[in-house]
Amino acid sequence: MPVRIRRSFRAPGSLAAFLFLAPFLAFYGAFLVVPLLLGAWMSLHRWELLGDLRAYCGSGNYLRMLRDPLFRSSLVHSAQFTLMAVPTITAVALFLALVMNRPHRLYAALRSIFFASGALSVTAVTLIWLMVLNPSRGLFARFMAALGFAPVDLLADPRLAMPALVVTTLWWGIGFPMVLFLAGLQQIPRELYEAAKLDHASPWTTFRRITLPSLRRTILLVLVVEVILQFQVFGQVLLMTRGGPANRTRVLVQYIYETSFRDWQVGYAASMSMLLLLVMSVASFVQLRLSRPGD
Amino acid sequence: MARTWARWLSHALLTALALAWMSPLLWVILLSLTPNEALARGDLAPRMLTTAHYQTLLAVSQAPRWFLNSLLVAGTMTAATLVLSSLAGYALARIPFRGRNGVFLFIVAGLAVPEQAIFLPLHRMFAELELHNTYTALIAPRLAGPFGVFLMTQFFRAVPREMEEAAELDHAGRVRTFLFIMLPLARPALTTLGIFTFLYAWNDFLWPMVSATDPDMYTLTVGLSSLQGNFAQSESLGFVMASAVVASSPMILVYLLFQRYIVRGMALGGVR
Question: Which residue among A166, A193, A205, B235 sits deepest, i.e. has the most Cβ atoms within 10 Å of its Cβ?
């Protein structure tokens, strides 16, 4: 692109651009780039705040990750959570978007109900769900009692705690993928459906042959966005199970948090952050490729 | 006939589903209005409602202070984000200079950096500067996020050239063109960005939790989590639920008022 500098804009382009960009770049540099570099540097040190130890250790922290069973299990738990939450959220969001994609006023109201919980903070959401899942007085226990079942403490059950966290997350985060699906549905040309109608195609065939293929890109996008979001799960776990029962829900970000803020081993925690960054950058790159419109 | 029936059935089923979806929230609001005696008995539907828990919250707890902290932090963060993002976005979209694409990519790359990966070095930095438990620490690091710049750049790129050319004919300088032509045009984008920043700032959890350790500096979101420990006893149950409602209601209000912008912002956020 040829660079045209217009006479009426008296300041030279680069000086003006610098002045416009400088305020943001100052914050960006100081609080994103510098911490990133500092984190990489920290990850190469054995750095413990208790006892004031700081010594270069090369790849020592990264090798330690390989041998650390707690790191491995927290990575596995994050992956488990992601594998449970992402398909569930995607499927439920797709279902809700499909049935609510009607221009009726009732549906506009219903859609906003599903979006609304997304406006709550993680602390409010977890308070609500701790109460709902409370085994002695919660809504869930009453519901089970009404059906004749004994109350279960889901969050204290090693097998059920993770699914309970997934349900909480589903309730909290359904709005965003629903919006993406609704936007995707709006873009499917109406003519396709009219043609299907003329062919007397059944609703199921129409869904399978028209809706689903047209949404392929949106589905992929939602999956990647949700993987990025859910792999970094932290607040729900910290506030609802603290990683329990029996460490069965301790996730990666929580382990990073505990290693730095409970054990004060900031060097080791920084190396785990770097690993998280690497995984997330790859996923973000995929997202960027997917969401670029028009190819 | 059958079709009408099917339609009414699906209306009814979906309405029931939406009500069930909302029931945890409604129930918590109900609990926050239930007297302690009824909570102790475990009544599902109390015969009398009370605002006693809200009065306790106002009188005894630090919640009002936390509320003001949240308001100050979220408000400042929103205003600053709007200024920084529109300035930078305008330059990236409209001022030709060497290396523009490089700068844009450098900024967009920041979208891939998750907060969880840098909060630890950031915490060290603020600890070295002895800035924790200040409003500066709560606000400044959150202004580095590149999403706003990205959004505003995309917006300004889409503004027709003719708009500026008219200003040029009037010999308006760059600053005046930006202030009086571009910014007024950008009002919808700025509204979306502003609401998003406010929601995000109000609900922010990880950073304020590790940075603000002094209860006087808690935001409402962090303060609420500090109350969670004692919610099992029925004496404080209603109180904790009332604080959850107080912490959530501003966001529910923002959401109801600006739903249109929020939905549009979410769609933009995915399709970036």
Answer: A166
> How high is the pLDDT of residue A125?
93
Q: Tell me the ipTM for this assembly.
A: 0.90
- Cα–Cα dist A44/A50, whole Å: 18
**CA-to-CA dists, residue B175 to A20, B95, B111, B152, angstroms:** 9, 11, 28, 17
Q: Which residue has the tokens 């008219």?
A: B166
pLDDT of residue B7: 84
Nearest to B156 by CA among B205, B65, B87: B87
CATH fourth-level superfamily of B61-270: MetI-like (1.10.3720.10)
Question: Which CATH number fits the domain that encloses residue A116?
Answer: 1.10.3720.10
Question: Which of B22, B141, B174 is nearest residue A9 as measured by Cβ atoms?
Answer: B174
Residue A261 Cα, gap to closest chain B Cα (Å): 8
- With CA atoms as reference, report the closest residue to A233 among A111, A92, A8, A82: A82
Task: Give the 3-state secondary structure of residue B214.
Answer: coil
> How does pLDDT run across B173-182, given as a tens digit for each residue?
888 889 988 9
For residue B203, the chain A residues in CB contact (below 8 A) are: 119-122
Whether the Cβ atoms of residue B27 and residue A171 lie closer than 8 Å to each other: no
Q: With contact defined as beta carbons under 8 Å apart, do A36 and A29 qualify?
A: no
